[in-house]
Amino acid sequence: MTDKQKAAAVWTNASQNPVILSDGSAVAPGEVTTPEQAEFVKGSFWEEHGVLILGAPKLGGDEASVIAELKKDMDILTAQQVEALAQIDTLTNGASELNQKLSSALDEAEALRQENVTLKASAGTSATQLSDAQAKIKTQQAEIEALKKTAK
Asked: Which pTM does this prediction carry?
C-alpha cells in the first residue's frame, strides 16, 4: 500500500458501541473513519481487538435488496402514518362538533323540561281555578233553582 493509499484508508467500526480515538474524536457503530481519524487507528487498541477494521462496509446483492425493500416498506408505513394522522384529525374534529351539538341538545332539553314544569304548575293553577269556577257555577245554579222554586 502506498503512502497515499494509507492516508486515504478508512476504517469501519464493527462494534455496537462508539469508539473514541486518541485525538478525542468518535466513530459511531457501523460508521467509517474520516481520513484524519484513520491516522490514529493503525496500531491502536481498537485495531488490535478487531473493533475497527480496514475498509468501508460493502453490501452484497442480498443485503442491498433487503435494504431497498426495507426503504420501500418504510415509505409505505410513513404514508400510512400520515393518512392515519389525517383520519385522527378528521375524527377528532367530528367528535368535537358532535360534542357541541350534544351540549346544545342537552341545553334545549333542559329548557323544555323547565317549560314543562312551568306549564304543569300553570295547568295545576288553571285546574284549581276551573274547579273553583265550576263549584261557584253549581252554587249559583242551586241558588237560581231555589229562587225559581220560591218564585213559583
From this structure: 0.38
Angstrom distances, CA of residue 75 to CA of 3, 67, 82, 85: 44, 12, 11, 15
CA distance 13 to 26: 10
Residue 117 corresponds to which cell in the numbers above? 314544569
DSSP letter for each residue of 28-44? -TT-B--HHHHTTTTTS
Which tens digits make up the pLDDT trace of 3-37?
Answer: 444 445 889 988 889 999 999 999 998 889 998 99
Quote the strand ranges of the chain, DSSP E.
11-13, 19-20, 26-27, 52-54
Q: Provide the β-strand partners of residue 20.
A: 26
Residue 11 to residue 30: CA distance in whole angstroms: 10
